[in-house]
Each structure stands twice: as C-alpha cells, then as structure tokens.
Amino acid sequence: MLRVAVCVSGGGTNLQAIIDAVANGTIRNTQLVRVISNKPGAYALERAAKAGIEGVTVARKDFADKESFHKGLIAAIDAAEPDLIVLAGFLVVLPQELVKKYSGKIINIHPSLIPSFCGDGFYGLKVHEAALARGVKVTGATVHFVDEGTDTGPIIAQKAVYVQEGDTPETLQRRVMEEAEWILLPQVIDQIANGQL
Ligand code: GAR
C-alpha cells in the first residue's frame, strides 16, 4: 500500500477527486494517511474528516517565524510516514529541507500546461486570468515532481483543455478542473502506487 499524504490550502476539490478515486478503485493499492492544511478551517479538512482521514492544520500564524513554521510542516509530514506527498492546491513554497528529504516523492498539480503560466505568482485563479489575458486557445493541467524551484520539476503528465468563447477565469478554472485536474492527478497516483512510473 502506498501511503499518501495530501497537502491543501483551500476547497480541496482535487483532494475529493483523490478520495473518490481511492474509494471506487480507480486508484489502487493506496492509503490516504493524512491531510495537511496551512489554512485553518479550509473546506478540504472537512472533506478529509468525512472520508475518515486524519486532518492536521499547520498555519504560519501559529509559529513565531518562518523557520519554525517549516519545522512544524516537516514534522507533520514525517509523522504520517508517507511514501508520496501530493500537493493538491497547496499554496506554500516548500522548505528546501523538505524537498531534499522527499526528493522524487513529492508531486504537484498545476492548472496550466507548464511551462506556460507557472512559477512565482501563478496559482489558482491567477493562472486562468493570465491565460485569458494572453488569449491562448488551449490550456490545461500538469502534474510534475517537485524540485527546488517553483513549478520547475520533471513533468509527469499533462492534459489539454480548450478555451471557449466567453470564458471567464472562473468558467475556465472549472473546465480545467473537470476535464484535466480531477482525472490526471488520480491517474498519476495510481501509476506511482502500481509501479508504472
Ligand atoms: C487547483 O486548480 C490547483 O491546480 C491549483 O489550485 C487549485 C486548488 O483547488 N494549484 C495551483 O495553482 C498551484 N500552483 P482545490 O483546492 O479545489 O483542489
């Protein structure tokens, strides 16, 4: 069984897609061992609780400085003894120590086709605002390994999504989630859990 810890910051629709995929067998040989949120009260924590998964909050405001926050984050992850860490809308730049310690064992979902609309400042709705502002006709989502940079790690999988006439950042975000993110992330976890990657 692959032990998976999921890190979240918000609504947790990607977390939900993972929970559902484990429940219905789309993700095989996988146990969701802990959900870690940096946002107290994030709806993702409720999703975890409903699914019987332990939820933990590690919030920057509860620590005196960044260094102790990072220590707390690493401790919360270590305690779960994960084989894989999934960043599912986790809007925290990971401490280098964590990236090194779990090298090759951290994956992230990003809501664009990397290398477009990624890196510092590109997260959540901002990514879709930028894609629409640039006038691209195709966007999508990317799952990649996490390295020391922001969205620079090796790409594992990508799925394209067409932009439609009249799209707003919100409608585009929703379509990218439905057509790409919620499919791609469970697929990649299943592949890792079953030695296909
Ligand atoms: C998702 O669209 C995810 O790709 C994005 O945040 C959203 C979280 O939604 N992540 C990033 O932008 C990371 N750079 P969710 O909480 O409903 O899964």
Describe the fold and architecture.
With about 200 residues, this protein is an alpha/beta fold. The chain has one domain (about 1-195): Rossmann fold (3-Layer(aba) Sandwich). About 35% of the residues lie in helices and about 20% in strands. It has 6 helices and 7 strands, in the order E-H-E-H-E-H-E-H-E-H-E-E-H. The protein has a 7-stranded mixed β-sheet, sandwiched between helices. The longest helix has 25 residues, at about 170-195. The two termini are about 15 Å apart. About 40% of the residues are buried. Glycinamide ribonucleotide binds near residues 14, 44 and 177. Glycinamide ribonucleotide (GAR) binds near residues 8, 11, 12 and 88.
Side by side, the strands of the main sheet go: 3-2-1-4-5-6-7
Q: How many strand elements?
A: 7
Number of domains: 1
Residue fraction in strands: 15-25%
At CATH level 3, the topology is Rossmann fold
Order of helices and strands: EHEHEHEHEHEEH
Oligomer: single chain
Number of helices: 6
Rg estimate, integer Å: 16 Å
The percent range for helix content is: 25-40%
Q: Distance between the terminal alpha carbons, to the nearest Å?
A: 16 Å
* Basic shape: globular
User: What's the CATH first level?
Assistant: Alpha Beta
Question: Biggest sheet, in brief?
Answer: 7 strands, mixed
Which architecture does the CATH hierarchy give at level 2?
3-Layer(aba) Sandwich
CATH superfamily: Formyl transferase, N-terminal domain
| Mean pLDDT across all amino acids | 98
Enumerate the spans where pLDDT stays under 50 for 5 or more consecutive residues: none
Q: Spell out which ligands are present.
A: glycinamide ribonucleotide
Query: Which class do the helix and strand fractions yield?
Result: alpha/beta
